[in-house]
Specification:
It is built from ten helices and eight strands. It is an alpha/beta fold and 268 residues long. The protein binds 3-methyl-2-oxobutanoic acid (KIV).
Length: 268
Amino acid sequence: MPTDDRERPVTILDFDAWKKQGRKISVLTAYDHPTARWFDAAGVDCLLVGDSLGTTVQGRETTLGVTLDQIVYHAEMVARAARRAFVVADLPFLSYQASRAQAIRSAGRILKETRCQAVKLEGGRRTAATIRAVVDAEIPVMGHVGLTPQSVRKFGGYKVQREADVIRADAQAVVEAGAFAMVLECVPASLAATITAEVPIPTIGIGAGADCDGQVLVVHDMLGLLEGFRPKFARRYSELGDAMKQAAGRYVEDVRSGDFPGESESFR
Ligand code: KIV
């Protein structure tokens, strides 16, 4: 029986146990080895190699341009860094929509070429058969309903999703397809609470209020690494962007003034 042991690696069984125990689940995105190492050491339960790497690391407007090769590249670094955290990688846009065979091959690549334990894919009823096919290939799947960023062109932007019946039906479809957990993104808190009470698998919220079984934040949002837009739901735990700018500014001054490198930073 899994326990809440911070030293033991998290397994898929813990998600089920934590839901039953009411023990909240912490998830953060990570895209590189050192970030994953720090988050793992801090006790984060699950690291998500999200296709949000398109809008964070790559500086794109959407996640649509992210490729499976890029996810595999980042997921391999992150999963190798994780000693305790469970690591999930996103299936990017058009790596699973074409056919179930494509989905199994894409998800299989992630498990074969990285040490990730699961994949995440977006959609409810429309992707339920795909989730089932991937799960039947022995690959654990985390679902993702509500605001699904790969549907941004269909949604006409990143908007809070309020169609309660649609989202509840999508959540049920994800459960019936065999997913072990699901992300609920940008839905009203009351709807997320209802779904969390209705489904037997953990809900991981982002912009979905406090009653989800867990929470996920994008690393660049929570550490203050992006300029401009601040999502309402993203609490900032640090201002690393400002800290980086100040550090680089001091370095520029030191180089120009000749203060760097000093004696102790030089070889004799
Ligand atoms: O890509 C991602 O980082 C995600 C989270 C926002 C849940 O899907």
